[in-house]
Amino acid sequence: MFKQAYPTLLLMMWGVRVKYLHKSPHAVFNSENTISPNMCEAESKVMQLAANGSLKELDSLLRKDNKAYAFANQDGVTALMLAASEDRPDVVNLFLQHGAKSDGVTKDGWTALMAAADNGHSRVVKTLLHHGVMVDYVTSDGWTALMLASKHGHSEAVDLLLSHQAKVDYIDTEGMTALMIASAEGHLHVVELLLKHKANPNLVNSEGVSALMFASQRGHSRIANSLLLNSADPNIADRDGVTAISSAAQTGHCSTVKLLIKHGAMIDRPNRFGVTPVMFASQEGHLKIADLLVASGANLNKTDIDGCTALMAASRNGHVQIVTLLLEKGAEVDPADDTGVTALHIAAENGHSVVVHLLLTWKAMVDKATDEGVTALMFASQNGHLEAVRLLINSSADAERVNNDGVSAAMFASVNGNTNILELLKSKDS
Question: Where do the ANK repeats lie (predicted)?
Answer without folding.
Answer: 75-107, 108-140, 141-173, 174-206, 207-239, 240-272, 273-305, 306-338, 339-371, 372-404
